Amino acid sequence: MTFVRVCSLDEVPADEALGVLVDGLEVAVARDGDEVFALQDLCSHAAVSLSEGDVANCTIECWLHGSTFDLRTGKPTTFPATEPVATFPVEIRDTDVYVDVETTLNGVTPS
């Protein structure tokens, strides 16, 4: 595993996401309560940025068509999306957020 620092914890708004670039891959870092998650910043339905959507109840909502994705698994929880998005390991070190985009937690290959 290769973790890369992507931002400070303070940069990730509570119940929102932050779009970051990690080794050429766009990643949404989302904060739901005290937990931080990382997933590919690309809706599997319409290829738009998920980091612009709302975060609630451990899901992120695509702002364009309203699909929601589970932050833990990347699986869609509402239509129209039917395909999951890649999720990545996150580590919090002191006040910094690190993400490993070489490893996916759900076996989905980032596109």
From TrEMBL:
Iron-sulfur: present as a keyword of the record? Answer: yes
Recorded hits in Pfam families, A to Z, give:
Rieske
Listed GO molecular functions? 2 iron, 2 sulfur cluster binding; metal ion binding; monooxygenase activity; oxidoreductase activity, acting on paired donors, with incorporation or reduction of molecular oxygen
InterPro entries given in the database record: Rieske_2Fe-2S (IPR017941), Rieske_2Fe-2S_sf (IPR036922)
Provide the Rieske domain boundaries: 4-99
Q: Which UniProt keywords apply?
A: 2Fe-2S, Iron, Iron-sulfur, Metal-binding
SUPFAM superfamilies in the cross-refs: ISP domain
Its protein name is 2Fe-2S ferredoxin
Which organism encodes this protein? Answer: Nocardioides currus
